[in-house]
Structure of 40S ribosomal protein S19:
Amino acid sequence: MEQHLALINSRGGVTVKDVPAKDFIEAFAKHLKKGNKIKMPEWAGIVKTAPYRDLAPYNQDWLYVRAAAVAYQLYMKKKCGVNGLRKHFGGKVRRGTNTNTHRPACGKNIRYCLKQLEAAGLVGLITFLSDDGTTLTMGKSLTRKGTTDMDRIATQLKKESRKN
């Protein structure tokens, strides 16, 4: 696995794609919490992450983890909207004897994460100028600051893994 990742990134710098996703999301969530980039709202303790879930998340810092996962998806996909992220974070609904179907996740917490990341300067809107002269919004993407922050955390993770 290490050799395969080295072939992908031949320039020598470490990016988010060079470290395991789970480790990166945990480290970036700690970074967001430590830097106070995201404020935990009042409703975070009682809300579910999807309509088909039975309970709220057990982890008290679940919103930081969700925001880190949203930022990770924006890094990988380059641009994405709320509905695309809802589909990604969705899952199957257990319907008894009927076949399971896929349902999207709740959009409120994804929108909240995107707004907080945008306020921190890590995420920005993608706007285009159409032929009519009107501006069109085509989702969200990471800013240069967001990309460099994520790559810096990935570099720290890679250095820690080399020490061990």
DSSP finds six helices and four strands in the chain. The first helix runs from residue 2 to 8. The two ends are 16 Å apart (CA to CA). The longest strand covers residues 135-142.
